[in-house]
Amino acid sequence: MFKPLEVYVGLRYTRAKRRNHFISFISLSSMLGIALGVTALITVLSVMNGFEKELRERILGMASHATISRFRSSLENWPSVAERARQHPRVIGVAPYVQGEAMLTRGRYVRGALVQGVLPQVEPEVSDIDKYMIAGKLDSLRPGEFNVVLGNGLAGALGARVGDKVTVVAPKATSTPAGILPRLRRFNVTGIFEVKHGQYDTQLAVVHVDDAARLFQLEDGVTGLRLKLDDMFLAPAVGRELAADLPGTFWVRDWTHYHANFFRALKTEKTVMFVILTLIVAVAAFNIVSALIMVVTDKESDIAILRTLGVTPGSVMMIFIVQGTLIGLIGTLLGMFGGVALANNIETLVPAIEQLFDTKFLSPDVYYISDVPSDMRWSDVSLISVVAFAMSIVATIYPAWRASRTQPAEALRYE
Fold first, then answer.
1. Bigger pLDDT: 55 or 100?
2. DSSP 8-class letter at 16
3. What separation in angstroms does the CA of 294 have from each of 18, 288, 307, 308, 401?
4. 388 closest CA partner among 3, 39, 55, 94
5. pLDDT tens-digit profile of 194-203?
6. What CA dihedral angle connects 193, 196, 199 and 201, to 10 degrees?
7. What's the distance, Cα to Cα, between the start and end of the chain in Å?
8. Planar angle of CA 150, 173, 179, nearest 5 degrees
9. φ and ψ at 90, to 5 degrees?
10. Model confidence over 302-347: pLDDT tens digits?
11. Using CA atoms, how far apart are residues 286 and 128, in angstroms rounded to an integer?
């Protein structure tokens, strides 16, 4: 008796056993449809977040968060620049690198590759290449010995294994009495790594920074410095701060420049998937329209009696808005709890299903990521829940308005 009239009647209509069981079925199916749609949306977006996170970690495990270089020239006196960069509070790792395109040959096999010179002692500060070694060690790269570590795909294309020799042909020319000859050098394969990402496994060859500098005729210079930050999402801001702080003119770029199109495509795909799956929620939410219209028709005489007792059209409208909102609220809450539970346990459920049916959804021979990762974010859960609940409220407006237009005389004419 202490509840507002609209809420009290609306809740009673929701709990009451209806004469028409089909109406109850539609209401229940609407509630379950919203719950299923919200669960699916939370789960799918969590899995997409997981794949995005996994790809980002694998890509940035090899690429740096930011680089410092000169524009169209090598970076001289790089130790002083590296020391200056280390003074930034966000920078946790600095390593020099030399980078250039070359052609690798072994016997009749020829492949284009990206040759990257690193300093093995400090390279683990900015990349995880040492963790991806499947044969040999990164420490085998010693200055003057001309050793090379190949990506697994590149080594397979060349038919090379640890202990073999490959010839690296640089796009630099050397003048000799016999004419202009390309620069080439034989390297010993001392290691093979596998990132499980085609960009690195099939195209990257890693050598010592001194050997790369000699190959590409950089003398004492390097291509630039690679930086690792404590928060990669601050890379654009840190890059601008370093560019302003370093003496002279430097070109500071971050990972968002190198992989902008890739991560933009992932974001677009996630947005499109959100819109598509939201349509499932929309269909379920607008089933509330059908349910409430049938309730209005079923309760027409009750509405007329309430009107004759002095209930205003606005109050009648609120009665059915409360009823539809309750259906949407229960469905949204069920879907939210179900989605959170499924997203948090999908990394356990998928292997169990694979084991039960003796199958593999993502074959490691085909896909870079063979497990189904999940990264549930409460921001996504909140957005999905709000959108689903808002759709439920919108779906109640027309049936509630139609109920408020009921004329008592017309409704009670044949009673």
1. 100
2. S
3. 11, 10, 19, 22, 14
4. 39
5. 887 777 888 8
6. 30
7. 29
8. 130
9. -90, -15
10. 777 777 777 788 888 888 888 888 888 888 999 999 999 999 988 8
11. 50
pLDDT at 1: 39
Please give the structure tokens belonging to residue 356.
Answer: 């039960």
Question: Rounded to 10 degrees, what is the CA torsion of 148, 154, 156, 160?
Answer: -20
Rounded to 5 degrees, what angle do the CA atoms 376, 377, 383 make?
120
Tens digit of each residue's pLDDT (9 = 90 or more) over 70-88:
877 788 888 888 899 999 9
| Strands, E assignment, 177-211 | 179-193, 204-208
User: How many CB atoms are located within 10 Å of the residue 312 CB?
Assistant: 12
- The Cα 17–Cα 279 span in angstroms is 31
> Who's near 214: CB < 8 A, 6+ residues apart?
none
Least Cα distance to 336 among 376, 396, 385 occurs for: 385
Does position 208 have pLDDT exceeding 90, yes or no?
yes
Record the tokens describing residue 296, joined without a space.
């209005």
- Nearest CA to 316 out of 294, 298, 300 is that of 300
Scan for tokens 């959804």, then name that residue.
361
Nearest to 62 by CA among 255, 263, 222: 255
Dihedral angle over CA of 124, 128, 132, 133, nearest 10? -10
In this predicted model, what pLDDT tens digit does every residue of 348-403 receive, in sequence order? 888 888 888 888 777 666 666 667 888 888 988 999 999 889 988 888 888 888 87
Residue 158 has pLDDT above 70, yes or no: yes
The C-alpha atoms of residue 409 and residue 365 are separated, in whole angstroms, by 74
- By three-state DSSP, how is residue 94 classified? strand
- Cα angle 53, 59, 65 (rounded to 5 degrees) comes to 95
